[in-house]
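User: Hi! I'm working on a homework problem where we have to compare a predicted structure to a textbook description. Could you give me the structure for the chain below?
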Amino acid sequence: MFQEYSTPAFEKKYTYTGNDLGHQWSPEQTLFRLWAPTAADACVCLYRSGTEGTDDLIDAIPMCADVCGTWVARAEGDWNGTYYTYKVSVGGKTVESIDPYAAAAGVNGRRGMIIDLRGTDPQGWDKDTPPIPPRSETDNVIYELHVRDLSIDASSGIDAKGKFLGLTEENTATPSGHPTGLAHICQLGVTHVQLLPIYDYGSVDEAHPEKGYNWGYDPENYNLPEGSYSTDPYNGSVRIRELKQAVLALHKHGLGVVMDVVYNHVYHSFDFSVNKLVPGYFSREDANGKLSGGSCCGNDTASERSMVHKFIVDSVNYWADEYHLDGFRFDIVGLIDVQTMQEIIATVRQKHPHMIFYGEGWDMATELTKPDVPLAVQSNGAMVPELGFFNDTIRDTLRGSIFDRSLPGYISGAPVSREQLLNCFRGVAGWNQSPTQAVNYVSCHDDLALHDRIAQALPQATEDEIARRSRFAAAFNLLSIGVPFFQAGEEMLRSKKLKSGKYDSNSYRSPDSVNSIKWSRLEDAQVQKTLRYYQGLLALRREHSLFRIADAAAAERCISLAENTPEPLTVFRLEDKKEIILAAFNPGQDGVNLSLPAGSWQVCVTDEQTDAQGLSSAQGEVSIPGISAFVAVQAKD
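Assistant: Happy to help. Predicted C-alpha cells:
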C-alpha cells in the first residue's frame, strides 16, 4: 500500500536534509518546519494548555509548502510555554497531531510545547562534563535500572518515589542504616547506569501514574521525557528539568548515564505522529499491506526509508547533546539497518567521543521495504564494530536456555565443556569481532531474575544455596572478558515472586509489589554477603587489566586453560608481563583440592569473600568448596 515511499523517485524528491525540523524558538519569533509531503495543506494550532480536548485554541497559523515536502510557518513574538499541534489535510481527511520532533509536551504527550530549552537547565548544567573519558568498552560496568523501581518501595527512604528526582537524593538509607538509591549505586563500583526507557511512552497515564506500571517499551514521543516520572506532567518544562537534574546528580558521583531507546517499533502504529501526518511512512509492511511484526509489538520501524533514518539519527544526537548522556542501549537493534547505526555512531561521537552503544542483536523476521538492506544483527557485527551486542552465549551457558526455564545451566549443575567455558571467559561468542562487542550478562529486565532462574531450575534449593549459586554466577560473569552488565538488584538477590508462588518472567506491566527493589532485603545476612561479593569482584576487575582485555588476539594469547586440573574444576590462567592470575570455578557440590603453581599467591576470591588487595596468601595445595569460585594472583619479579 505504501511501497511508493521506498522508491528512488520518492526519496529523491522528498528527502529533506536540513537540521530545523520541529520548532526553533527565540524571544522574537518561533519558526516551525514540518515534513509532510503527502499533505494538501497544513497549519500550526497554538493552545494555552497541553491537555488534549481542552477548548483553548489561541490561533491557527497557516503553513506554506516549502522544499522537499516540508511546510513552514512563523509565529511572531515570544511563545515560550505555549502548546501546539500540526493539523494537515491528507488523503481527503483532516488529522491533528503532535510534532514528531516535539521537545516538550503536555500531559500524556498529545500536544507539543514551544520551549526555551536553556530555561530548563538546572544550576551547574553549563559546567557538567562527562564523568567517563574515552576508553575501552571493557573498562565499563553497566547497571540496568528502572526509574520507578529504584525508589517506589517504602523501604527505600527516598522522598521522590517513582520520580526522576528520586535519583538525585543523597545519603538515603533503610531504617537500620543500609544505603539505598544513589548511595547504594555509588558504593557498588559500576561505571554506568542504564535507565529503562525515559522518553515519553504511552502505556501509563501521566495524570494518574499510581494506577499503572510499565517498563516503557512503547514509544509515544521520542524526543521528550516521560511525564509520569516528573512531579508535574502538565507542565512540559518540568520533566525536562528534572531529568537533567537526575543526569547531573549521577555525573556528580562519577556515573555515566545510558538511555534505553526503542526505535524498532512504536506504541500504536497508526496513531503515531509520523504515521498520522504521512500515513504509513514510519512502518514496514509486507506485499499485502500488512504491518511487519518482527518486534512482536505489532509494527516494525522502516529505518531504511530516508526520512525515518534521518529521524532516528537526529533523535539520538538530540538526546546526546541536550541531556548530556553517555551511551545508548538499543532495543532489538537487529531490526534497525546497518547504515542508520553507522551514521548514529559516527555523528554522535564527533561531539561525544566517550559515548557507548550496544543493543539486542537478535535476528528477527521483518519485512524490509527495500532489497538488500543489511540489519544490525549479531552476524553483521563486523559492519558495526563500535556497536556492542548482548551476549546470549554466556547468558545461556551460565543460567540455562532462554527457551526452557526449567533446564539448569552451568551455575545450576549442568555439564559444560571446558572449551566452551574458555570461549565464554575470553569473550568469544562466535559472532563478535572483539571482546568490546560482547555485553556479558546473566540477568536483565527481560525474563526471570537470576535468583528466580536458579530457583526455577532447582526447585528444592534453599535460599542459602540460591545465594551461593548467584555469587558463583557473578564471579564468572563479572570477571569474564567483555562488558559486564547486570540488572539492578541482582547484587541483592532480587526476586519477582508472585502471590501464587510462581516467578514473574515478564513483569513489564506487573505492579510495584513485584517490580520494586525491596531495600528491606538488605537486612538479610546472605544478601549482605552477596552485595559485598559483587563490590569485591568489581574492585578486582578494576585492579587487574587482565580482566579487561579489549582485543581478541590478546585474550587468546593471555588466557588459557590450566593443565592437569581435577574434575569438575575449570581453571583459567591469565598472564601478562606483570602478573599471573588463576581463576578457578567449581560447579560441583563437593570441595576439590587444587595444586597451585610454585610460589606464593594472593587469594582474592573465595566462596564467600572477595578482596582486590588479597584475603590471604597461599602456596602448595588449596581446597575449593563446591559451587564456588577461587581467584589468586602472583606478581612477576
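For your comparison, note the following. The chain has a mean pLDDT of 97. The chain is about 25% helix and 20% strand. Good luck with the assignment!
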